[in-house]
């Protein structure tokens, strides 16, 4: 058995490949050796990232390469939050992973107001993961003919796609022609998985059939019309993942008690800040801090954090109505899952278990939909609290007490 110094020397010489250590030794040993090598090379003390509680045998195979340890993020809870959805109907404690002081306190205040008001009404409007291969055609006519073939042969494409998956279903497609470029935006029901890998594999199978039948050449299985992990109007308009809306009516006395302001002020702050301000900035997000809440829930619950880009494409509305205000959030592209990806890591699975949605649902897809409804209600809580703080001119005071960061 080589000594530590001998192993480090072998890595340095290239005889022992840094990325292949798990094939030669237990996962914990491999991670420890790799961390020691990086410490020597960088002269950094990595002992803090070497302390972790999660079992990593699965992690090094499915979630990360060249692992040296874990970065720990504090997790707080906000709640209880009453949610009246079609898949999530009850009271929930929200796990929020963040390093921003005041965020959990802010969401917690919003949760209290929503629960006092009887709960947030939440509905899923659309559900479907997209992938859009791009094809090269010989001419505009060729591209249009290939698009028409795809549109006319959904059942054939569905059969080809679904041969690659036990659970995924191809439910529709939309074509776009730009010169000699053809984009086919496939839409999949991915059940309890977020489904990006599932959709990609199935899309490639369907795309090969389009190639065979039309002669259009697939250039890339992703042509960016999907549109994955990038701000885009198509996801705001057409949706991607779960399109969810949540709303709550707050009586005047509750607005005054919880937020020290009134319905008229809430509506004005929202209109001038979230709507007019966002429009003037040409923002895709017409909200106060949706990304804060989406990111904190994603990190806690094992979601792909890059999908905060699409998940924060939220629109917040405040209607001043007789006796109070009706506040709502609409999230057109919230991409979540309860199986696959980071959801199987022990700490993230524990957070999903807090919400009662860990793993697959009794009916495939129910857990992911319930998670989306809870997340939308959480965003609503965050929006309410920040709008209230801005309306009452309390924001700076709160952050002076609890933290310096702010999603404003």
**Helical residue percent?**
40-55%
Which stretches are poorly predicted, pLDDT < 50 over at least 5 residues?
none
The CATH superfamily of the largest domain is 3-hydroxy-3-methylglutaryl-coenzyme A Reductase, Chain A, domain 2
- Determine the strand fraction and express it as a percent band: 15-25%
Count every beta strand, where a strand is a DSSP E run of 2 or more residues.
10
- Supply the number of helical segments: 15
CATH architecture group name of the largest domain: Alpha-Beta Complex
Shape: globular
Rg over alpha carbons: 24 Å
Estimated structural class: alpha+beta
- Report, as a whole number of angstroms, the end-to-end distance: 57 Å
Q: What is the highest CATH level, the class of the largest domain?
A: Alpha Beta
Total individual domains: 3
